[in-house]
Amino acid sequence: MPTVTTKDGVEIFYKDWGQGQPIVFSHGWPLSADDWDNQMLFFLGQGYRVIAVDRRGHGRSSQVGDGHDMDHYAADLAAVTTHLDLKDAIHVGHSTGGGEVTRYVAQHGQPQGRVAKAVLISSVPPLMVKTDANPGGLPKDVFDGLQAQLAANRSQFYRDLPEGPFYGYNRPGAKSSEAIIANWWRQGMMGGAKAHYDGVVAFSQTDFTEDLKSISVPVLVMHGDDDQIVPYADAGLLSVKLVQNGTLKIYKGFPHGMPTTESATINADLLAFFKS
Questions:
Q1: Annotated catalytic residue 256
Q2: What is the pLDDT of residues 80-123, one digit of tens each?
Q3: 76 has catalytic annotation
Q4: Is the pLDDT of residue 148 over 90?
Q5: Are the CB atoms for 262 and 250 separated by under 8 Å?
Q6: How far apart, in Å, are the Cα atoms of 266 and each of 167, 259, 271?
Q7: Residue whose C-alpha is closest to residue 68's, from 185, 211, 194, 155
Q8: The model's pTM
Q9: Which pLDDT value is given to residue 202?
Q10: Catalytic residue among 204, 227, 234, 239
Q11: CATH number for the domain that contains residue 140
Q12: Residue 1's pLDDT band (boundaries 50, 70, 90)?
């Protein structure tokens, strides 16, 4: 399998298909590069080079016990982009991956001149947890509860999330897909419990405000207004105001996992942004 070994000895798995301008995909918690299958095949067919990375402790990357924070996530992504010597790359992040992309672009990609554009889909920045400075955030006990459920029965928890709020399957009249639910569970159970447990803190308590302010490349922020995992009003609406060159697209009724359930719409809008 293609991997890169980081400075602290972690093997990071990645997929790298095709030729052309590179698009690099960063997945959400607690999934893997496989969550981007639809987008990778679509954009491969559009003449792009598509790359997706398994975050440390997730998917096929090393299940190490430490380094499960945004600084390491961004540095690991930089190890891959440096190894592949990517230039003029477009970085796309979903959920936690949007935080990873934000920190990577701000601290690694943009200073090195490697990044052309970035996309934040249903993403966690600027800050998820409620604080005095972020009164619209979610209470810390919400995230403590996620960790408790993970520790008690990770397999059951990884069925409940995709069956319910992640894809909006808990909404009246929603038609759920057992295949999508099972694939979410499969990806989650491939990764390590310690990485996923610590990852809750990483995605909920990291403040990306200064990272966002420093980003000058064009940024597309995409968010569903029925996102039950990362509420859009305290995420996408705030992030687009902080970046220097941002565009916002809000999707009525779309859930957190909209790259999967609404892939045709999302892919078309991504392609338009890439070509703009």
A1: yes
A2: 999 999 999 999 999 999 999 999 999 999 989 999 999 999 99
A3: no
A4: yes
A5: no
A6: 14, 6, 9
A7: 194
A8: 0.98
A9: 98
A10: 227
A11: 3.40.50.1820
A12: confident
Mean pLDDT of the chain: 98
Number of domains comprising the chain: 1
Q: Which residue has the tokens 């929603």?
A: 174
Catalytic residue among 26, 32, 61, 95, which?
95
The reported pLDDT for the residue numbered 113 is 92
The active-site residue out of 27, 94, 223, 256 is 256
Indicate if 16 belongs to the active site: no
